[in-house]
């Protein structure tokens, strides 16, 4: 039985200026328009200030718009934060929550990530929930229990295959050029699949992305692994040619 349609998501992080963002969005929109409908779903997540112009650049295309984070509350005295409803108004349909950089640099706990994921679902969008181990945890042989604990602690209450995507990102592979072996990726994705299937009736259909130094050279191998339903792409998503190669490497369904 064929699995869910792959999703290739570009996380632009805090990179680029307005001209760069609109140019990249237009280029991605153009190459996706030329692909068959059986190709992967494509998503780009620009910095907050560029959501509106990127949404305009993507108008009428098959490329979805996403945000890199949100606040758990719908409104209030939270200077510098952005609510899920605001992101929905800006044209977003996906929001990344729990990225390792948010967990590490902003001290976000599983409970905080879960609250944000719940906010995304309440706003009628899809949450991309990130989990992953550090190098020390990998070396100590604790990858599976660490990822399982993050998953259980961060999962939103009313998730299903339409409003939740899980992204496995080994922290030690993000931006380093290092990637786990095929066997290591397969093991973790298999464990995540088992956890989702145990908790949700449609857990077998939930998309699980791999993230961590995905590029045009390793995408084909990574996207062929069982239970890998796409990729969360960082640096390579800032280069239209590399991102296009990754999108084209995804299985067609």
Any overview of this molecule?
- This protein is α/β, with parallel strands linked by helices and 253 residues long.
- It has one domain (42-57, 64-71, 80-235): TIM Barrel (Alpha-Beta Barrel), CATH 3.20.20.70.
- The chain has 10 helices and 8 strands.
- Helix 5 packs across helix 7 and helix 7 packs parallel to helix 8.
- The mean pLDDT is 96.
Helix-strand blueprint:
Layout: E1 7-11, H1 18-33, E2 41-45, H2 51-58, E3 63-67, H3 84-89, E4 94-97, H4 100-105, H5 110-122, E5 126-131, H6 135-139, H7 143-154, E6 164-168, H8 182-199, E7 207-211, H9 219-223, E8 230-233, H10 240-249
Parallel strand pairs: 1-2, 1-8, 2-3, 3-4, 4-5, 5-6, 6-7, 7-8
Helix pairs in contact: 1-2, 5-7, 7-8
Can you summarize this structure?
The protein is α/β, with parallel strands linked by helices.
Q: How much is the radius of gyration in Å? A: 17 Å
> Helical element count?
10
Overall pLDDT level: 96
Shape: globular
Quick one: biggest sheet?
8 strands, parallel, barrel
Structural class: alpha/beta
Strand order of the largest sheet: 1-2-3-4-5-6-7-8
DSSP E strands, number: 8
CATH level 4 superfamily: Aldolase class I
Assign the CATH class: Alpha Beta
Q: Note poorly predicted spans.
A: none
The succession of helices and strands, N to C, reads: EHEHEHEHHEHHEHEHEH
CATH topology heading: TIM Barrel
- Any guess at the CATH architecture? Alpha-Beta Barrel
* Helical percentage: 25-40%
How much of the sequence is in beta strands? 15-25%
Q: How many distinct folded domains?
A: 1
Distance between the termini: 11 Å
């Amino acid at each position: 039985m064929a699995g869910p349609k792959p999703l290739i998501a570009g996380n632009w992080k805090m990179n680029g200026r307005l001209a760069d963002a609109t140019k990249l969005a237009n280029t991605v929109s153009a190459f996706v328009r030329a692909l068959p409908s059986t190709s992967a779903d494509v998503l780009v997540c620009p910095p907050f200030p560029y959501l509106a112009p990127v949404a305009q650049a993507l108008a009428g295309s098959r490329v979805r718009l996403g945000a890199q984070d949100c606040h758990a509350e719908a409104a209030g005295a939270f200077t510098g934060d952005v609510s899920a409803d605001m992101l929905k108004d800006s044209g977003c349909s996906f929001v990344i929550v729990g990225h390792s950089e948010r967990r590490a640099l902003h001290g976000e706990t599983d409970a905080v990530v879960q609250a944000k994921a719940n906010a995304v679902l309440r706003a009628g969008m899809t949450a991309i929930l990130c989990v992953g181990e550090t190098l020390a945890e990998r070396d100590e042989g604790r990858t599976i229990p660490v990822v399982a604990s993050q998953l259980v602690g961060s999962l939103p209450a009313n998730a299903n295959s339409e409003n939740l995507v899980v992204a496995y990102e080994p922290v030690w592979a993000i931006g380093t050029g290092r990637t786990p072996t095929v066997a290591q990726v397969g093991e973790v994705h298999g464990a995540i699949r088992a956890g989702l299937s145990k908790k949700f009736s449609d857990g077998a259909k939930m998309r699980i992305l791999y993230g961590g130094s995905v590029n045009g050279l390793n995408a084909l191998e990574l996207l062929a692994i069982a239970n890998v339903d796409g990729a969360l792409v960082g640096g390579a998503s800032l280069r239209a040619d590399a991102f296009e190669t990754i999108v084209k490497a995804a299985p067609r369904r």
